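User: Quick one: structure for sequence A, then sequence B.

Assistant: Sequence A:
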Amino acid sequence: MSGQPAKLPARDFEEIRLAEALERGRCPVCDARQESAFAALRGLAREGATDRGLRAEMDRGLGFCQPHSVGLSKMELLQTSSQLATAVLLDAVLRRRLGALKKLFGADAAAQGRGLADLADPRCPVCARVSEASRTAVDRLLALSDDPAWSAALGAGELCLSDLCVLWAAAAAGPKDLQARWSGILAAQLARLEALQKTLAEYAHNSTMDRRRLITKEQQEAGAASIRLFGGSPDRDRTR
Protein backbone atom coordinates (compact mmCIF):
# COMPACT_ATOMS: atom_id res chain seq x y z
CA MET A 1 0.00 0.00 0.00
CA SER A 2 2.93 2.36 0.61
CA GLY A 3 6.12 2.93 -1.30
CA GLN A 4 9.24 1.08 -0.30
CA PRO A 5 11.76 3.11 1.73
CA ALA A 6 15.21 3.96 0.45
CA LYS A 7 18.03 1.57 1.26
CA LEU A 8 18.51 1.69 5.01
CA PRO A 9 21.90 1.95 6.76
CA ALA A 10 22.84 -1.39 8.37
CA ARG A 11 25.90 -2.25 10.42
CA ASP A 12 25.59 -6.01 10.83
CA PHE A 13 23.79 -9.06 9.50
CA GLU A 14 20.83 -8.66 11.85
CA GLU A 15 20.25 -5.07 10.75
CA ILE A 16 20.64 -6.10 7.10
CA ARG A 17 17.83 -8.64 7.54
CA LEU A 18 15.56 -6.13 9.27
CA ALA A 19 16.27 -3.53 6.61
CA GLU A 20 15.60 -5.99 3.81
CA ALA A 21 12.23 -6.91 5.32
CA LEU A 22 11.12 -3.27 5.52
CA GLU A 23 12.46 -2.48 2.04
CA ARG A 24 10.54 -5.40 0.54
CA GLY A 25 7.23 -4.65 2.24
CA ARG A 26 7.40 -7.32 4.96
CA CYS A 27 6.97 -7.08 8.69
CA PRO A 28 10.53 -7.25 10.09
CA VAL A 29 9.49 -8.98 13.33
CA CYS A 30 7.49 -11.62 11.43
CA ASP A 31 10.53 -12.09 9.22
CA ALA A 32 12.85 -12.52 12.21
CA ARG A 33 10.58 -15.19 13.70
CA GLN A 34 10.39 -17.08 10.43
CA GLU A 35 14.14 -16.97 9.89
CA SER A 36 14.72 -18.24 13.43
CA ALA A 37 12.24 -21.10 13.00
CA PHE A 38 13.79 -22.02 9.66
CA ALA A 39 17.31 -22.13 11.15
CA ALA A 40 16.21 -24.12 14.20
CA LEU A 41 14.28 -26.68 12.14
CA ARG A 42 17.15 -27.01 9.68
CA GLY A 43 19.58 -27.78 12.52
CA LEU A 44 17.22 -30.27 14.14
CA ALA A 45 16.58 -32.04 10.85
CA ARG A 46 20.33 -32.39 10.28
CA GLU A 47 21.66 -33.22 13.73
CA GLY A 48 18.80 -33.35 16.23
CA ALA A 49 18.47 -37.14 16.29
CA THR A 50 22.12 -37.54 17.29
CA ASP A 51 22.35 -34.57 19.66
CA ARG A 52 22.71 -36.14 23.11
CA GLY A 53 21.91 -32.91 24.92
CA LEU A 54 18.68 -32.47 23.02
CA ARG A 55 17.70 -36.10 23.57
CA ALA A 56 18.37 -35.74 27.29
CA GLU A 57 16.15 -32.64 27.39
CA MET A 58 13.40 -34.60 25.66
CA ASP A 59 13.68 -37.30 28.29
CA ARG A 60 12.98 -34.53 30.82
CA GLY A 61 9.85 -33.37 29.00
CA LEU A 62 10.93 -31.27 26.04
CA GLY A 63 8.69 -31.72 22.98
CA PHE A 64 7.44 -29.96 19.87
CA CYS A 65 4.31 -27.90 19.25
CA GLN A 66 1.99 -28.95 16.43
CA PRO A 67 3.24 -26.48 13.77
CA HIS A 68 6.90 -27.23 14.44
CA SER A 69 6.34 -31.00 14.51
CA VAL A 70 5.04 -30.66 10.97
CA GLY A 71 7.74 -28.13 10.10
CA LEU A 72 10.46 -30.51 11.26
CA SER A 73 9.18 -33.32 9.07
CA LYS A 74 8.92 -31.02 6.05
CA MET A 75 12.41 -29.63 6.62
CA GLU A 76 13.98 -33.08 6.85
CA LEU A 77 12.10 -34.26 3.78
CA LEU A 78 13.33 -31.23 1.88
CA GLN A 79 16.95 -31.78 2.92
CA THR A 80 17.29 -35.55 2.85
CA SER A 81 14.16 -37.01 1.20
CA SER A 82 13.71 -38.92 4.46
CA GLN A 83 11.86 -38.45 7.74
CA LEU A 84 13.98 -40.76 9.88
CA ALA A 85 15.39 -38.06 12.18
CA THR A 86 11.90 -36.69 12.70
CA ALA A 87 10.63 -40.15 13.61
CA VAL A 88 13.51 -40.65 16.07
CA LEU A 89 12.87 -37.31 17.79
CA LEU A 90 9.11 -37.74 17.92
CA ASP A 91 9.55 -41.26 19.27
CA ALA A 92 11.48 -39.78 22.20
CA VAL A 93 8.71 -37.22 22.77
CA LEU A 94 5.98 -39.84 22.50
CA ARG A 95 7.64 -42.20 24.98
CA ARG A 96 7.80 -39.40 27.54
CA ARG A 97 4.24 -38.25 26.86
CA LEU A 98 2.86 -41.79 26.92
CA GLY A 99 4.45 -42.47 30.29
CA ALA A 100 2.91 -39.30 31.70
CA LEU A 101 -0.52 -40.12 30.26
CA LYS A 102 -0.47 -43.61 31.74
CA LYS A 103 0.25 -42.18 35.17
CA LEU A 104 -2.60 -39.71 34.83
CA PHE A 105 -5.01 -42.43 33.74
CA GLY A 106 -5.00 -43.90 37.23
CA ALA A 107 -5.06 -40.59 39.12
CA ASP A 108 -8.04 -38.71 40.55
CA ALA A 109 -9.79 -35.96 38.57
CA ALA A 110 -7.91 -33.10 40.25
CA ALA A 111 -4.52 -34.69 39.54
CA GLN A 112 -5.56 -35.40 35.97
CA GLY A 113 -6.47 -31.74 35.47
CA ARG A 114 -3.13 -30.55 36.84
CA GLY A 115 -1.18 -33.09 34.82
CA LEU A 116 -2.99 -32.35 31.57
CA ALA A 117 -2.47 -28.61 32.08
CA ASP A 118 1.25 -29.27 32.46
CA LEU A 119 1.31 -31.41 29.31
CA ALA A 120 -0.45 -28.67 27.35
CA ASP A 121 2.88 -26.82 27.16
CA PRO A 122 5.17 -28.92 24.94
CA ARG A 123 8.20 -26.73 25.82
CA CYS A 124 9.00 -26.62 22.12
CA PRO A 125 12.67 -25.67 21.50
CA VAL A 126 11.78 -24.07 18.17
CA CYS A 127 9.16 -21.86 19.83
CA ALA A 128 11.77 -20.82 22.39
CA ARG A 129 14.17 -19.80 19.60
CA VAL A 130 11.40 -17.94 17.78
CA SER A 131 10.40 -16.01 20.93
CA GLU A 132 14.01 -15.01 21.51
CA ALA A 133 14.36 -13.85 17.90
CA SER A 134 11.19 -11.80 18.20
CA ARG A 135 12.42 -10.06 21.37
CA THR A 136 15.80 -9.36 19.76
CA ALA A 137 14.17 -7.89 16.64
CA VAL A 138 11.92 -5.65 18.72
CA ASP A 139 14.84 -4.40 20.83
CA ARG A 140 16.94 -3.74 17.74
CA LEU A 141 14.16 -1.89 15.93
CA LEU A 142 13.54 0.31 18.99
CA ALA A 143 17.23 1.23 19.03
CA LEU A 144 17.37 1.79 15.27
CA SER A 145 14.40 4.16 15.42
CA ASP A 146 16.87 6.80 16.65
CA ASP A 147 18.10 6.98 13.03
CA PRO A 148 15.83 9.25 10.91
CA ALA A 149 15.93 6.85 7.94
CA TRP A 150 14.88 3.90 10.09
CA SER A 151 12.23 5.98 11.84
CA ALA A 152 10.71 6.94 8.48
CA ALA A 153 10.85 3.34 7.26
CA LEU A 154 9.15 2.06 10.40
CA GLY A 155 6.42 4.67 10.02
CA ALA A 156 5.76 3.66 6.42
CA GLY A 157 6.54 -0.05 6.74
CA GLU A 158 4.00 -2.83 6.47
CA LEU A 159 4.12 -3.93 10.10
CA CYS A 160 1.56 -6.56 11.05
CA LEU A 161 -0.94 -5.42 13.66
CA SER A 162 0.25 -7.86 16.33
CA ASP A 163 3.88 -6.77 16.09
CA LEU A 164 2.94 -3.09 15.82
CA CYS A 165 1.28 -3.48 19.23
CA VAL A 166 4.29 -5.35 20.62
CA LEU A 167 6.62 -2.59 19.45
CA TRP A 168 4.24 0.04 20.82
CA ALA A 169 4.13 -1.62 24.25
CA ALA A 170 7.91 -1.94 24.36
CA ALA A 171 8.37 1.70 23.37
CA ALA A 172 5.79 2.84 25.94
CA ALA A 173 7.78 1.03 28.64
CA GLY A 174 11.03 2.65 27.51
CA PRO A 175 12.67 6.00 28.25
CA LYS A 176 11.10 9.33 27.32
CA ASP A 177 13.22 9.86 24.21
CA LEU A 178 12.13 6.48 22.83
CA GLN A 179 8.49 7.26 23.58
CA ALA A 180 8.82 10.55 21.71
CA ARG A 181 10.35 8.87 18.66
CA TRP A 182 7.66 6.23 18.56
CA SER A 183 4.91 8.80 18.84
CA GLY A 184 5.78 9.97 15.33
CA ILE A 185 6.14 6.42 14.02
CA LEU A 186 2.78 5.42 15.48
CA ALA A 187 1.07 8.49 14.02
CA ALA A 188 2.30 7.44 10.58
CA GLN A 189 1.26 3.82 11.15
CA LEU A 190 -2.23 4.83 12.30
CA ALA A 191 -2.60 6.99 9.21
CA ARG A 192 -1.56 3.99 7.09
CA LEU A 193 -4.13 1.77 8.78
CA GLU A 194 -6.85 4.39 8.42
CA ALA A 195 -6.16 4.64 4.68
CA LEU A 196 -6.23 0.85 4.42
CA GLN A 197 -9.56 0.67 6.26
CA LYS A 198 -11.15 3.25 3.96
CA THR A 199 -9.97 1.40 0.86
CA LEU A 200 -11.27 -1.88 2.29
CA ALA A 201 -14.66 -0.26 2.85
CA GLU A 202 -14.69 0.88 -0.78
CA TYR A 203 -13.74 -2.63 -1.85
CA ALA A 204 -16.62 -4.08 0.16
CA HIS A 205 -19.03 -1.46 -1.23
CA ASN A 206 -18.09 -2.38 -4.79
CA SER A 207 -18.28 -6.13 -4.20
CA THR A 208 -21.97 -6.50 -5.08
CA MET A 209 -22.85 -7.92 -8.49
CA ASP A 210 -23.97 -4.59 -9.94
CA ARG A 211 -20.81 -2.73 -8.86
CA ARG A 212 -17.99 -5.24 -9.32
CA ARG A 213 -16.87 -3.43 -12.46
CA LEU A 214 -15.94 -0.51 -10.19
CA ILE A 215 -13.39 -2.47 -8.16
CA THR A 216 -9.94 -0.94 -8.59
CA LYS A 217 -6.52 -2.53 -8.39
CA GLU A 218 -5.85 -0.52 -5.23
CA GLN A 219 -8.96 -1.98 -3.59
CA GLN A 220 -7.90 -5.52 -4.49
CA GLU A 221 -4.44 -4.84 -3.11
CA ALA A 222 -6.04 -3.54 0.08
CA GLY A 223 -7.75 -6.90 0.55
CA ALA A 224 -4.41 -8.70 0.34
CA ALA A 225 -2.80 -6.10 2.61
CA SER A 226 -5.47 -6.65 5.26
CA ILE A 227 -4.67 -10.38 5.31
CA ARG A 228 -0.99 -9.56 5.83
CA LEU A 229 -1.92 -7.06 8.53
CA PHE A 230 -3.71 -9.68 10.62
CA GLY A 231 -1.89 -12.81 9.47
CA GLY A 232 1.68 -11.53 9.39
CA SER A 233 3.97 -10.87 6.46
CA PRO A 234 7.25 -12.78 6.52
CA ASP A 235 9.10 -13.86 3.36
CA ARG A 236 6.60 -16.11 1.60
CA ASP A 237 9.32 -17.57 -0.62
CA ARG A 238 11.35 -18.97 2.26
CA THR A 239 10.78 -22.61 3.12
CA ARG A 240 9.12 -22.88 6.53
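Sequence B:
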Amino acid sequence: MGDLASSIRRVLVLGTGTMGEGIAQVTAAAGCITNLFDVDETRAKRAVDNIGKQTEKLVQKGKMTDVARADLVEALFPMSDLPVACSGVDLVIEAVPENMDLKVDVLSRVKDRALSHAIIASNTSSLSLTELGRRIGASERTVGLHFFNPPPVMELLEIVRGLGTSDATIEVCEAFAKRLKKTSILVRDVPGFATSRLGVILGAEAMRMLESGVASTTDIDRAMELGYRHPMGPLKLTDLVGLDVRLAILEHLHRELGEQFRPPSILRQMVRAGRLGKKVGIGFYKWTDAGPVAADSGAA
Protein backbone atom coordinates (compact mmCIF):
# COMPACT_ATOMS: atom_id res chain seq x y z
CA MET A 1 0.00 0.00 0.00
CA GLY A 2 2.98 2.32 0.53
CA ASP A 3 3.30 3.33 -3.12
CA LEU A 4 -0.31 4.51 -3.05
CA ALA A 5 0.71 7.38 -0.78
CA SER A 6 1.43 9.42 -3.90
CA SER A 7 -0.27 7.45 -6.64
CA ILE A 8 -3.94 6.79 -6.02
CA ARG A 9 -5.10 6.59 -9.61
CA ARG A 10 -8.80 5.79 -9.60
CA VAL A 11 -11.38 6.98 -7.06
CA LEU A 12 -15.00 6.00 -6.56
CA VAL A 13 -17.27 8.63 -4.99
CA LEU A 14 -20.58 7.23 -3.74
CA GLY A 15 -23.42 9.73 -3.75
CA THR A 16 -24.18 12.75 -5.92
CA GLY A 17 -25.45 15.21 -3.34
CA THR A 18 -23.67 18.48 -2.62
CA MET A 19 -20.78 16.77 -0.86
CA GLY A 20 -20.35 13.88 -3.29
CA GLU A 21 -20.37 16.24 -6.24
CA GLY A 22 -17.82 18.54 -4.61
CA ILE A 23 -15.53 15.70 -3.55
CA ALA A 24 -15.57 14.30 -7.09
CA GLN A 25 -14.54 17.70 -8.42
CA VAL A 26 -11.62 17.81 -5.98
CA THR A 27 -10.33 14.31 -6.77
CA ALA A 28 -10.65 14.84 -10.52
CA ALA A 29 -8.80 18.16 -10.22
CA ALA A 30 -5.97 16.25 -8.51
CA GLY A 31 -5.61 14.03 -11.58
CA CYS A 32 -7.53 10.98 -10.38
CA ILE A 33 -9.90 9.13 -12.66
CA THR A 34 -13.12 9.61 -10.69
CA ASN A 35 -16.20 7.42 -10.93
CA LEU A 36 -19.22 9.28 -9.53
CA PHE A 37 -21.90 6.78 -8.57
CA ASP A 38 -25.63 7.14 -8.02
CA VAL A 39 -28.31 4.48 -8.34
CA ASP A 40 -30.11 6.98 -10.59
CA GLU A 41 -28.12 7.43 -13.80
CA THR A 42 -29.79 10.79 -14.46
CA ARG A 43 -28.58 12.18 -11.13
CA ALA A 44 -25.05 10.94 -11.76
CA LYS A 45 -24.95 12.63 -15.17
CA ARG A 46 -26.48 15.81 -13.75
CA ALA A 47 -23.78 15.95 -11.07
CA VAL A 48 -21.02 15.74 -13.69
CA ASP A 49 -22.78 18.43 -15.72
CA ASN A 50 -22.93 20.63 -12.62
CA ILE A 51 -19.20 20.22 -12.09
CA GLY A 52 -18.66 21.24 -15.70
CA LYS A 53 -20.71 24.40 -15.17
CA GLN A 54 -18.96 25.28 -11.91
CA THR A 55 -15.50 24.87 -13.44
CA GLU A 56 -16.53 26.92 -16.48
CA LYS A 57 -17.24 29.79 -14.08
CA LEU A 58 -13.76 29.36 -12.63
CA VAL A 59 -12.29 29.66 -16.13
CA GLN A 60 -14.30 32.83 -16.77
CA LYS A 61 -13.00 34.31 -13.52
CA GLY A 62 -9.41 33.44 -14.39
CA LYS A 63 -9.09 30.94 -11.54
CA MET A 64 -8.64 27.91 -13.80
CA THR A 65 -7.19 27.41 -17.25
CA ASP A 66 -9.14 25.88 -20.11
CA VAL A 67 -6.64 23.02 -20.21
CA ALA A 68 -7.00 22.26 -16.50
CA ARG A 69 -10.79 22.32 -16.82
CA ALA A 70 -10.73 20.01 -19.83
CA ASP A 71 -8.49 17.54 -17.96
CA LEU A 72 -10.78 17.65 -14.92
CA VAL A 73 -13.96 17.04 -16.90
CA GLU A 74 -12.36 14.20 -18.89
CA ALA A 75 -11.47 12.47 -15.59
CA LEU A 76 -15.13 12.29 -14.45
CA PHE A 77 -17.32 9.28 -15.20
CA PRO A 78 -20.98 9.18 -14.09
CA MET A 79 -21.95 5.64 -13.07
CA SER A 80 -25.13 3.82 -12.05
CA ASP A 81 -23.85 0.22 -12.24
CA LEU A 82 -22.08 -0.46 -8.93
CA PRO A 83 -19.90 -3.43 -10.02
CA VAL A 84 -18.64 -1.41 -12.99
CA ALA A 85 -18.10 1.67 -10.80
CA CYS A 86 -15.97 -0.37 -8.36
CA SER A 87 -13.70 -1.83 -10.99
CA GLY A 88 -10.04 -0.94 -10.48
CA VAL A 89 -10.55 1.71 -7.80
CA ASP A 90 -7.81 2.40 -5.23
CA LEU A 91 -9.94 4.63 -3.00
CA VAL A 92 -13.65 4.69 -2.22
CA ILE A 93 -15.17 7.82 -0.67
CA GLU A 94 -18.71 7.36 0.59
CA ALA A 95 -20.95 10.44 0.76
CA VAL A 96 -24.42 8.97 1.27
CA PRO A 97 -26.88 10.15 4.00
CA GLU A 98 -25.90 9.90 7.68
CA ASN A 99 -27.34 6.49 8.40
CA MET A 100 -25.04 3.75 9.65
CA ASP A 101 -27.07 0.84 8.24
CA LEU A 102 -27.17 2.50 4.81
CA LYS A 103 -23.42 3.11 4.83
CA VAL A 104 -22.74 -0.48 5.92
CA ASP A 105 -24.97 -1.85 3.18
CA VAL A 106 -23.38 0.21 0.41
CA LEU A 107 -19.77 -0.22 1.52
CA SER A 108 -20.16 -3.98 2.12
CA ARG A 109 -21.11 -4.36 -1.52
CA VAL A 110 -18.28 -2.10 -2.64
CA LYS A 111 -15.63 -3.87 -0.53
CA ASP A 112 -16.21 -7.14 -2.36
CA ARG A 113 -15.86 -5.52 -5.79
CA ALA A 114 -13.06 -2.94 -5.44
CA LEU A 115 -9.35 -3.79 -5.48
CA SER A 116 -8.24 -5.78 -2.43
CA HIS A 117 -6.00 -2.94 -1.24
CA ALA A 118 -8.59 -0.18 -1.81
CA ILE A 119 -9.01 2.27 1.05
CA ILE A 120 -12.63 2.58 2.15
CA ALA A 121 -13.34 6.10 3.34
CA SER A 122 -16.48 7.69 4.71
CA ASN A 123 -17.32 11.38 4.62
CA THR A 124 -19.43 10.92 7.77
CA SER A 125 -19.41 13.91 10.10
CA SER A 126 -20.22 12.02 13.29
CA LEU A 127 -20.71 8.24 12.95
CA SER A 128 -18.23 5.67 14.25
CA LEU A 129 -15.53 4.55 11.81
CA THR A 130 -14.65 1.73 14.20
CA GLU A 131 -18.16 0.32 13.95
CA LEU A 132 -18.29 0.87 10.20
CA GLY A 133 -14.99 -0.94 9.62
CA ARG A 134 -15.99 -3.85 11.82
CA ARG A 135 -19.39 -4.30 10.21
CA ILE A 136 -18.08 -4.30 6.64
CA GLY A 137 -15.16 -6.54 7.59
CA ALA A 138 -12.35 -4.20 6.56
CA SER A 139 -11.25 -2.38 9.71
CA GLU A 140 -7.63 -1.83 8.64
CA ARG A 141 -8.65 -0.10 5.40
CA THR A 142 -11.59 1.90 6.79
CA VAL A 143 -11.03 5.58 7.59
CA GLY A 144 -12.90 8.85 7.82
CA LEU A 145 -12.20 11.49 5.18
CA HIS A 146 -14.44 14.32 6.32
CA PHE A 147 -14.56 17.11 3.74
CA PHE A 148 -16.21 20.48 4.31
CA ASN A 149 -18.81 22.30 2.29
CA PRO A 150 -18.05 23.29 -0.42
CA PRO A 151 -15.22 20.74 -0.88
CA PRO A 152 -13.52 22.57 -3.80
CA VAL A 153 -13.13 25.69 -1.63
CA MET A 154 -12.64 24.53 1.96
CA GLU A 155 -9.02 23.76 2.88
CA LEU A 156 -9.56 21.38 5.80
CA LEU A 157 -9.73 17.60 5.53
CA GLU A 158 -10.46 15.79 8.81
CA ILE A 159 -8.93 12.31 8.82
CA VAL A 160 -10.61 10.06 11.38
CA ARG A 161 -8.82 6.98 12.65
CA GLY A 162 -10.90 4.02 13.80
CA LEU A 163 -9.55 1.60 16.38
CA GLY A 164 -8.63 -0.85 13.64
CA THR A 165 -7.35 1.59 11.01
CA SER A 166 -3.79 0.72 10.02
CA ASP A 167 -0.79 3.06 10.05
CA ALA A 168 -0.40 2.45 6.31
CA THR A 169 -3.95 3.64 5.62
CA ILE A 170 -3.35 6.84 7.60
CA GLU A 171 -0.05 7.43 5.78
CA VAL A 172 -1.76 7.14 2.40
CA CYS A 173 -4.60 9.45 3.42
CA GLU A 174 -2.30 12.14 4.80
CA ALA A 175 -0.26 12.06 1.58
CA PHE A 176 -3.42 12.12 -0.50
CA ALA A 177 -4.70 15.15 1.41
CA LYS A 178 -1.60 17.05 0.29
CA ARG A 179 -2.19 15.95 -3.27
CA LEU A 180 -5.72 17.37 -3.01
CA LYS A 181 -4.16 20.62 -1.72
CA LYS A 182 -5.90 20.17 1.61
CA THR A 183 -4.58 20.67 5.11
CA SER A 184 -5.40 17.60 7.18
CA ILE A 185 -5.93 17.02 10.86
CA LEU A 186 -5.89 13.56 12.42
CA VAL A 187 -8.46 12.76 15.10
CA ARG A 188 -9.52 9.69 17.04
CA ASP A 189 -12.85 8.03 16.43
CA VAL A 190 -14.97 9.73 19.09
CA PRO A 191 -18.56 10.95 18.59
CA GLY A 192 -18.55 14.14 16.52
CA PHE A 193 -14.77 13.91 15.98
CA ALA A 194 -13.34 17.44 16.38
CA THR A 195 -15.07 19.65 13.84
CA SER A 196 -18.67 18.46 14.05
CA ARG A 197 -18.55 18.49 17.83
CA LEU A 198 -17.37 22.10 17.92
CA GLY A 199 -19.48 23.26 14.98
CA VAL A 200 -22.84 21.90 16.11
CA ILE A 201 -22.47 23.12 19.69
CA LEU A 202 -21.94 26.67 18.39
CA GLY A 203 -24.86 26.32 15.99
CA ALA A 204 -27.14 24.92 18.70
CA GLU A 205 -26.33 27.79 21.08
CA ALA A 206 -27.04 30.30 18.31
CA MET A 207 -30.46 28.68 17.82
CA ARG A 208 -31.19 28.86 21.55
CA MET A 209 -30.26 32.54 21.52
CA LEU A 210 -32.67 33.07 18.63
CA GLU A 211 -35.40 31.17 20.50
CA SER A 212 -35.03 33.33 23.58
CA GLY A 213 -34.90 36.61 21.67
CA VAL A 214 -31.31 37.56 22.47
CA ALA A 215 -30.84 38.99 18.97
CA SER A 216 -32.02 38.56 15.39
CA THR A 217 -30.80 35.91 12.97
CA THR A 218 -28.70 38.46 11.12
CA ASP A 219 -27.16 39.98 14.24
CA ILE A 220 -26.27 36.63 15.81
CA ASP A 221 -24.45 35.65 12.64
CA ARG A 222 -22.86 39.08 12.29
CA ALA A 223 -21.50 38.78 15.85
CA MET A 224 -19.42 35.75 14.90
CA GLU A 225 -18.48 37.00 11.44
CA LEU A 226 -17.22 40.38 12.60
CA GLY A 227 -16.33 39.70 16.23
CA TYR A 228 -14.50 36.40 15.68
CA ARG A 229 -13.76 36.57 11.96
CA HIS A 230 -15.81 33.49 11.11
CA PRO A 231 -16.38 33.51 7.33
CA MET A 232 -20.04 32.60 7.92
CA GLY A 233 -22.28 32.87 10.97
CA PRO A 234 -23.57 29.71 12.70
CA LEU A 235 -27.20 30.08 11.53
CA LYS A 236 -26.26 30.71 7.92
CA LEU A 237 -23.85 27.78 8.08
CA THR A 238 -26.64 25.57 9.42
CA ASP A 239 -28.70 26.54 6.37
CA LEU A 240 -25.80 25.59 4.11
CA VAL A 241 -25.18 22.24 5.81
CA GLY A 242 -28.91 21.43 6.04
CA LEU A 243 -31.08 21.65 9.15
CA ASP A 244 -31.97 17.96 8.86
CA VAL A 245 -28.28 17.05 8.76
CA ARG A 246 -27.54 19.22 11.81
CA LEU A 247 -30.49 17.67 13.66
CA ALA A 248 -29.28 14.13 12.96
CA ILE A 249 -25.78 14.97 14.22
CA LEU A 250 -27.11 16.60 17.38
CA GLU A 251 -29.39 13.65 18.10
CA HIS A 252 -26.46 11.27 17.73
CA LEU A 253 -24.18 13.36 19.97
CA HIS A 254 -26.98 13.83 22.51
CA ARG A 255 -27.24 10.05 22.82
CA GLU A 256 -23.50 9.54 22.99
CA LEU A 257 -22.24 12.54 24.96
CA GLY A 258 -25.07 14.13 26.92
CA GLU A 259 -27.38 17.07 27.47
CA GLN A 260 -25.16 19.80 26.02
CA PHE A 261 -26.03 18.39 22.59
CA ARG A 262 -29.82 18.24 23.04
CA PRO A 263 -31.32 19.66 19.80
CA PRO A 264 -33.04 23.04 20.27
CA SER A 265 -36.83 23.03 19.87
CA ILE A 266 -36.66 25.55 17.02
CA LEU A 267 -34.49 23.14 15.01
CA ARG A 268 -36.98 20.30 15.37
CA GLN A 269 -39.87 22.60 14.46
CA MET A 270 -38.18 23.90 11.33
CA VAL A 271 -37.23 20.41 10.14
CA ARG A 272 -40.84 19.26 10.65
CA ALA A 273 -41.95 22.26 8.60
CA GLY A 274 -39.61 21.30 5.76
CA ARG A 275 -37.44 24.39 6.22
CA LEU A 276 -34.19 22.54 5.68
CA GLY A 277 -32.00 25.40 4.53
CA LYS A 278 -30.43 26.41 1.25
CA LYS A 279 -31.21 23.15 -0.56
CA VAL A 280 -34.95 23.88 -0.34
CA GLY A 281 -34.66 27.68 -0.51
CA ILE A 282 -35.55 28.46 3.11
CA GLY A 283 -34.27 27.81 6.59
CA PHE A 284 -33.11 30.54 8.93
CA TYR A 285 -32.71 32.52 5.70
CA LYS A 286 -34.62 32.79 2.45
CA TRP A 287 -32.17 31.91 -0.31
CA THR A 288 -32.91 34.23 -3.23
CA ASP A 289 -31.11 34.87 -6.50
CA ALA A 290 -29.74 38.04 -4.91
CA GLY A 291 -28.44 36.11 -1.89
CA PRO A 292 -29.69 35.03 1.55
CA VAL A 293 -32.19 37.23 3.40
CA ALA A 294 -33.06 36.52 7.04
CA ALA A 295 -36.42 34.73 7.27
CA ASP A 296 -39.01 35.11 10.01
CA SER A 297 -38.36 31.94 12.02
CA GLY A 298 -41.06 32.71 14.53
CA ALA A 299 -38.44 33.23 17.22
CA ALA A 300 -36.95 36.59 16.41
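The radius of gyration is 19 Å. The chain has a mean pLDDT of 93.

User: Thanks, that's what I needed.
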